[in-house]
Write a sequence for this structure.
């Protein structure tokens, strides 16, 4: 079941961004302010529980799979894809230190 994803590891987003990200204490975490549908949340929980059960049978898995680690890995995978497709594989520029706008999505 060892698939190279950062389950059970420290913050990978900060490590990936390197010096360009605001500095945080080692191992610091932030809550992700996002809403998902109840169905998506149910599927997420079901997936993590199923992977936890599967990992019990896999001797190659050293770290427990957690919901937070799963979500962080999924976010990082999507960030990498978007950077590859929309920014020549480079991290997007650091934004000004302001909160993101809330409300309906920005449209063209």
């Amino acid at each position: 079941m060892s698939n190279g994803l950062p389950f059970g590891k420290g913050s990978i987003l900060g490590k990936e961004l390197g010096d360009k990200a605001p500095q945080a204490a080692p191992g610091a975490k932030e809550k992700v302010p996002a809403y998902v549908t109840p169905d998506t949340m149910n599927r997420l929980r079901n997936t993590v529980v199923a992977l936890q059960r599967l990992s019990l049978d896999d001797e190659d898995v050293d770290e427990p799979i957690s919901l937070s680690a799963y979500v962080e890995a999924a976010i990082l995978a999507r960030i990498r894809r978007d950077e590859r497709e929309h920014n020549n594989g480079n991290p997007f520029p650091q934004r000004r230190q302001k909160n993101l706008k809330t409300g309906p999505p920005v449209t063209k």
Residues 35-93 form one domain. The chain has a mean pLDDT of 79.
